[in-house]
Each structure stands twice: as structure tokens, then as C-alpha cells.
Design goal:
Radius of gyration: 18 Å
Oligomer: single chain
Distance between the termini: 59 Å
Order of helices and strands: HHHH
Number of domains: 1
Largest sheet: none
Shape: extended
Helix content: 40-55%
Length: about 120
């Protein structure tokens, strides 16, 4: 094999591994529109109150990124999903240090469906 073919093979393999190991976000896994259930902000609000307060609720003396209203949650949803999907022992996982119960797969899917459905109020 020529040197150019070997280098090309190595680069292809590295890029494939990089893609395979990259966490997916709300945007990348979207199902067909007909399969997305209707989810409104009110539907996910209880999940957020249970799992994200008091740290992300300024009224409860939370001092980190506020997630206590529609606009804030919408603006930070992709990062939220990324962090709740991390392995529990990985840095950045939320809820922080498991001081609250981790979100279930169904709850994470509900957050994604809210985004995929157009962020209904």
C-alpha cells in the first residue's frame, strides 16, 4: 500500500471513530414529524422543578444558569439534553453530583419531543 492510501485510511478511521463517540443532541435524532407526540412547556415544567431546583431557580436562591421560565429553557435545551444524557460518573452530568434523581429515558425523550414539536407553550 502506498503512503497516501495508508494516511487516507487512518484519517478515515479517526473521523469515523470521532463521529461514533460524539454525543447526540436534540436536533440530530429527530424522528418523522408524524411520530412526534405533542408536548407543551407545562408538561416538562414539573421535570425541571423536580430535577433542576433550587440550583437553576433564582427565586429559590439558585446561582447558576436560570432555567425557571420558558425562554431560558428553550435557549438552553440542547445543552441540558447533552448533560442529562452523559454517563452519571462523567464531569458535566446533571443533576449535579446526583443531589437529585437523574432524569429517566422517558423524561429525556419528553424534552426532545418538546423541541422537535416546536417548543409549544
Amino acid at each position: 500500500m502506498s503512503l497516501l492510501v495508508r494516511i487516507s485510511f487512518i484519517l478515515f478511521t479517526l473521523s469515523l471513530l470521532t463521529y461514533a463517540c460524539t454525543p447526540r443532541t436534540a436536533v440530530s435524532e429527530r424522528p418523522p414529524a408524524a411520530d412526534i407526540p405533542v408536548v407543551a412547556y407545562a408538561d416538562i415544567n414539573s421535570i425541571l422543578e423536580r430535577s433542576c431546583s433550587p440550583c437553576h431557580y433564582p427565586d429559590l436562591k439558585g446561582r447558576v444558569t436560570p432555567l425557571d421560565n420558558y425562554k431560558a429553557v428553550k435557549n438552553h435545551l440542547a445543552e441540558m439534553i447533552k448533560r442529562v444524557e452523559l454517563p452519571q460518573d462523567q464531569e458535566g452530568f446533571m443533576p449535579y453530583e446526583l443531589k437529585k434523581e437523574a432524569l429517566s429515558k422517558e423524561e429525556i425523550l419528553m424534552l426532545k419531543n418538546w423541541a422537535w414539536g416546536g417548543y409549544r407553550k
